[in-house]
Design a protein that fits this description.
The chain is α+β, with helices and mostly antiparallel strands. The chain has a single domain, classed as 2-Layer Sandwich (60s Ribosomal Protein L30, Chain: A), CATH 3.30.1330.70. The chain has three helices and four strands. A four-stranded mixed beta sheet has the order 1-4-2-3, covered by helices on one side. Helix 1 crosses helix 3 (84-94). The radius of gyration is 17 Å and the shape is globular. Residues 128-133 have low confidence and may be disordered.
């Protein structure tokens, strides 16, 4: 399965308000910067959104944590905010047309090096080479 690593800090999609058109809140500015960075990296790598994929969000650990705590949590599941669905919404927004997507798997982990990893399966369900049992 091909995997693509995007070296960006994952950002959740904020709840937009009408005032965000002219009065940009910090969370909205951060979200737009994230979206633009992902789009640029995807274009450079030649990546487009597939009809089904898995995505892993590797989130940074707080600076206040000790080295020991960071070592213990590295690679472990991330079970606090931001929610996986909001991270996924932001990820899908980066690629624009997402209406063809019919299957998505999202997971989030603590990581010393924040990133987003896109995993695309090689066979799709409509592939004649794949047999259904």
């Amino acid at each position: 399965m091909p995997a693509y690593r995007f070296d960006v800090v994952p950002v959740a999609a904020p709840r937009m308000t009408h005032a965000d058109r002219w009065k940009r809140r910090p969370c909205v500015v951060k979200y737009f910067e994230y979206r633009d960075a992902v789009r640029n990296q995807a274009q450079t790598m030649g990546v487009t959104l597939s009809e089904r994929f898995s995505v892993e969000f590797h989130l940074p650990m707080p600076r206040s944590w000790s080295k020991r705590k960071k070592q213990d949590h590295d690679g472990k599941p991330h079970q606090v905010k931001p929610d996986a669905d909001n991270l996924l919404k932001a990820w899908m927004d980066c690629f624009g047309e997402d209406c063809a997507v019919w299957s998505v798997s999202a997971s989030k982990f603590w990581s010393a090096s924040p990133a987003v990893v896109l995993i695309v399966p090689e066979l799709s369900l409509g592939d004649p080479a794949q047999t259904v049992v």
